[in-house]
Design brief:
Blueprint (H helix, E strand, L loop, with lengths): L2 H12 L2 E8 H11 L12 E4 L2 E8 L3 E8 L5 H15 L12 H18 L20 E10 L7 H12 L4 E4 L4 E7 L18 H19 L2 E7 L9 H18 L5 E2 L5 H7 L3 H11 L9 H12 L4 H8 L3 H15 L6 H16 L2
Parallel strand pairs: 8-9
Antiparallel strand pairs: 1-4, 2-3, 3-4, 5-7, 5-8, 6-7
Length: about 375
């Protein structure tokens, strides 16, 4: 990779500007000497040096003058430091010695994760994994994608090795874990690890693919929630071969999570097959949403009452069953009927009638995304 392309890639992936500087080689070597022996997990001083709380990247070293790039902006995360160390080491390594560059699994995973982010920014969502990644051979197997966002109380979130070990134990085999940021992870689980053997299944109780994926998603969320303090969000997609189109799949997983968090604020697990109506509503232009609500809703305050919203949400969650809704709300059946009659009186819509129930459900969804 030429230096200009490398500079653009670093700036785009870190969100930081690189400032070119020329210093004496003697000064650079002094910085190196000062950094040698520091055991705080910082990158090798051959390619990066932290001086006066600023990071300097080795760009070109000469006998008397050395070109460096000063990073300007936010502080770097541990993963970003590892990625920078690796790409700079490979950039400065002589071609004859490239085979001596050892890339750990964590570094390889981070490089692929940043490759995904870069192609998403470029809009090239159908991109194929380049041959330069040694993990490409793993990407031809059908895998189930999970997107985990770990918004934990501690700053850095789960570490790669800890999370990988946890996931391997849960799924019962090898998988691919790709960090997209400090708190966002793409998990690629081989499809065979989550398939139930047909010999072990009763024909009458055989689960659909969606039911199997939902079960694994619920179990995975419970595992993560029990390991780390804080909020975690999880979305899932259908099986695919990640060798091509990974940026597109990550975009879909992010969209699923966005829809779930927008329309169902209390949920932590977001399943695409349960968000068809929400996806449709979200695609409606805001002006059209407002026009529809103005025509249909005669008394807007009716849908701002907490008790009314709770009653309607529970009513729809239980397939418009009066008995099940009353049980879930811990109220008498007659109390629920009184609330439904009150909603009918205030809005002119009776949710016990199919057409009115559809309208009210649509109204509730529209209110969540209409500005």
């Amino acid at each position: 990779m030429d230096k200009q392309a490398l500079q653009l890639q670093i700036e785009r992936l870190t969100g930081m500007r690189l400032e070119s500087q020329h210093i004496s080689t003697a000064r650079w070597e002094d910085w190196i000497s000062a950094a040698v022996g520091v055991k705080d997990g910082t990158p090798s001083p051959r390619t990066m040096v932290k001086h006066d709380e600023e990071w300097y990247l080795l760009w070109k070293q000469g006998k008397t003058t050395t070109d460096v790039m000063k990073l300007q902006g936010k502080s770097l995360s541990g993963q970003e430091l590892q990625w920078l160390e690796l790409v700079l080491l490979m950039q400065h390594q002589p071609k004859s010695g490239m085979d001596t560059v050892h890339v750990t699994d964590e570094q390889q995973a981070y490089l692929i994760g940043q490759w995904i982010i870069e192609h998403m920014r470029d809009g090239d969502t159908a991109a194929e994994i380049p041959d330069s990644f040694s993990w490409k051979t793993k990407m031809f197997t059908q895998t189930v994608p999970f997107l985990l966002v770990a918004e934990h109380a501690h700053r850095d979130g789960p570490g790669y090795k800890h999370l990988y070990k946890l996931l391997k134990s849960y799924f019962g085999g090898e998988l691919i874990l790709l960090p997209l940021s400090d708190k966002e992870w793409l998990i690629l689980c081989p499809e065979q690890l989550i398939q139930v053997s047909e010999a072990d299944e009763d024909v009458e109780t055989k689960e659909t693919m969606e039911e199997q994926l939902t079960s694994f998603c619920l179990g995975l969320y419970e595992l993560v929630a029990s390991e780390w303090v804080g909020d975690s969000q999880l979305s899932i997609g259908y099986p695919f071969a990640p060798v091509k189109g990974m940026p597109s799949v990550v975009s879909q997983l992010r969209e699923t999570m966005y829809l779930g968090r927008t329309f169902h604020v209390t949920d932590n697990i977001h399943l695409p097959w349960e968000l068809h109506l929400e996806r449709l509503v979200n695609s409606i232009p805001d002006a059209v949403r407002k026009q529809f609500l103005q025509r249909v809703v005669t008394k807007a305050d009716s849908f701002n009452d907490v008790e009314t919203l709770s009653t309607l949400d529970t009513f729809f969650q239980h397939d418009c069953s009066v008995s099940e809704t009353a049980k879930r709300l811990y109220i008498h059946r007659n109390t629920l009927l009184y609330r439904l009659d009150k909603i009918k009186h205030e809005t002119g819509l009776d949710v016990r009638q199919f057409t009115d129930a559809v309208l009210v459900k649509l109204i509730l969804l529209l209110y969540k995304v209409t500005k």
